[in-house]
Design brief:
alpha/beta; Rossmann fold; five-stranded parallel β-sheet; 9 helices; 61% helix; globular
Length: 294
Amino acid sequence: MLQFNICGRSKWLRCLNVLRARTVRWLNALASKASKHHSHLGYEGRNLKKPTRSSRKRKPSSKELDLAARTRDLEEASKTASFVAHELNNLLTVIQINTEFLLDSVGKDPSGLEELDEIQRASRRASILGRQLLASSRLEPFDASLAEAALKKKSTIARAKAMAAVQGTPRVAETILLVEDEAAVRTLAKRVLFQKGYRVLEASDGAIALRLAAGHVGEIDLVLTDVAMPNLGGRGLVEELKELSPGMRVLFMSGYPKEEVFPDKGANRVPYLQKPFTSETLLAEVRTALGYAS
């Protein structure tokens, strides 16, 4: 009887140990599963220990909270400044090209000529302010005199290209798919291109441009597209079009600096038209993108 009790007790203890081991394994497996399921929330789930005071997250101090709030405010201010500069460049494009049209219509008539020249000078100064605003949004240094010199150099190059275009032998009129969500900019760009003999298909965003391109397969020589647009932006549009026509020529345009839109290495090779632009600059960049000798 005593031997039976001893044997029975020994067997019972072994069963208890097995049950305890299985319970531990089950709890660990359950904890591991919970850890994987909630890893995106930052839960560890590796053990079931209650967190101690030392392991609990320390509450931020008032100074840290104030610094975080100031950082958020600075980021929002930078985004706002960048957006305002972008929209300003769109408006300046409209002002500059319309002024050019008015100057062409005035001709040699001195009446109103001085006022139009003043508008052009003011728009050039405003474009420099727009560049300064973009630089400040990225907390970068800015030199107004250097920016003005670069602007004059760019204008001179565009004028030389325009003169070469007049002297050169024109090709058969190319077809350009113009994609721009700002209606005034799109209308003026179309007018400038149409006057130079280009056939222009226009769309207000990338989604509409895709449908338009599907109806003119093999006809489009150049895609002139804004970068930031609703529904589908310029980069997404070009990726879709390149699948249909890998060799399609593209010219991006934007009110944001090129290095901000294309920060990747090799971005210098991407054809890019910086807003605000003039008629001369637009035509010169279009000719270069189409493969004319610059």
